[in-house]
Amino acid sequence: LQAYPELATSDSVMVLLLEQATELSGGEINSLTELHGMLNVETGADPRLVRLIVHDQEPQLAADLANAWADTFVSVVDAIYRGQGGEVAFFTDQLAQIDSQLQTAEAALVQFQSGSRMGIVDNELLSLTNMQASYLADQRRLNMVLDDIRALRAQIEAGTGDAVTLADQLTALMLQLDIYQQVSGTPEPGSGIQLQIIPQADVTTSQRAEHLELLNNLSQSAETSLSEIDVRLLALEPRIFELQREKQDIFHQYEELTRNRNVAAETYMSLA
After folding, report:
1. In terms of pTM, does the model score above 0.85?
2. CB of 178 within 8 A of CB of 141?
3. Which pLDDT tens digit goes with each residue over 65-111?
C-alpha cells in the first residue's frame, strides 16, 4: 500500500498513459515532462485509497485523462501483485495452496494420534500415583501405630506391680495386628500370619518386662517398615517425573498440530 503513490507515477505507468494522453489531447501532450506536470497523487486517511488528480484547462480532457490513468494504474498493479487473471485467479491459486496445507496438517494430526503414547503414559502415571498414595497412607497409619505404642508403653511404665492387665494385652495385640497388616499386606493363599500369642490365659504376656520388650520390638518393626516405605517413595519419584515430562511433551505436540490444522481450516474457509 505504501508503494502505490510512487507506483502511480512510475515510468511503467507514465509510458502507457502518455500514449493515451497524446491521443485524447489530439497530439498536444507529447512528452513525459509535460504529462508529469499535469498529474498529482495523494493518499487518504486510509492507505488503501489513492487519489489521482489531473489538472488541465479543458475539464473533459482532465476527466478522460484521470479515468485513463486509473485504468492504467490498476492494470499495472494487477500485473505486479496478482499476475494475469485478477483477483479470482489469485484467490483460486491461494485456495489450492491452503487446501494442500490443510490436508497435510490433518494427515500429520492423524499420524500423531495413531502412534501417540498419551493413553499409555496416563495409565502408567495413574498406576504409580496410586501406588504412591498407598505408600503414603501406610506411612501415616504406621506413624499413628507408633504413637499408640509410645502411649501404651508410657501407661505400662507408669503402673505398679509386675502384672499387665488384659486390656493392655488386647491393646498390644491390636497394635501388633496393625503392624503385621502394614508389613505383610494382603497375604497370599496358604500363607499365615504368626502372632506372638502366649498360650493359656494371656493374650500376649502378663509380665511387665516382657510386655515392654514386646512393645519395643513392635516399635522397631514399625520403624523398619517406615524406612522401607521411604525408600520405595524415593524410588517412585524419578519415574513419576519422567512420565509427567513425557505427558507434557506429548500434549504440546498435540496442541501444536491441532493449532496448525485449525489455522489451515480457518484460512481455507476464509479464502473459499
Report:
1. no
2. yes
3. 999 999 999 888 887 776 555 567 778 888 899 999 999 999 999 99
- The answer to whether 155 touches 204, Cβ cutoff 8 Å, is no
Place of cell 493515451: 20
What DSSP line would sit under the chain, residue for residue?
A: -TTHHHHHTSHHHHHHHHHHHHHHTTTS---HHHHHHHEEEEE-SSTT-EEEEE--SSHHHHHHHHHHHHHHHHHHHIIIII-TTHHHHHHHHHHHHHHHHHHHHHHHHHHHHHT--HHHHHHHHHHHHHHHHHHHHHHHHHHHHHHHHHHHHHHHHHS-SSB--HHHHHHHHHHHHHHHHHHH-SPPTT--------STT-SS--BHHHHHHHHHHHHHHHHHHHHHHHHHHHHHHHHHHHHHHHHHHHHHHHHHHHHHHHHHHHHHHHH-
